[in-house]
Design goal:
Blueprint lengths: L14 E3 L1 H20 L2 H16 L6 H10 L9 E3 L1 H22 L3 H9 L1
Antiparallel strand pairs: 1-2
Length: 120
Amino acid sequence: MAVLNQTSISPKANLIDARGPRFSAAITTLVLATALVTQSAVLIAIQLAVFAIGAFAGPAKTPYAYAFKKFVKPRLKGEVPTEDARPPQFAQSVGLIFAVVALAGSLLSIPALYFVSISL
């Protein structure tokens, strides 16, 4: 199994600050945990929109990435670790699928579908 590192990424790869997706994941966790506890379809719809932006435009275009760039990144020191944007974009696509299923479960009043899709 080959290890992907900076030298093995194609020159066409879009590199992003690796700390941004981690920040976004933390916010996503808070949103989904709150949606799970409150059973809020609105929160799921908001998170679904964020996932859609990340899946189609890329993780650097999401509102969470904007918040990271505006408020967090200026306060960080040291070397900026970068990573290929494709794996986080794929993760946004998977999240989008689960958010669609969760929203469908909420709107169709199928609690098991809602809870299982958010919990995964």
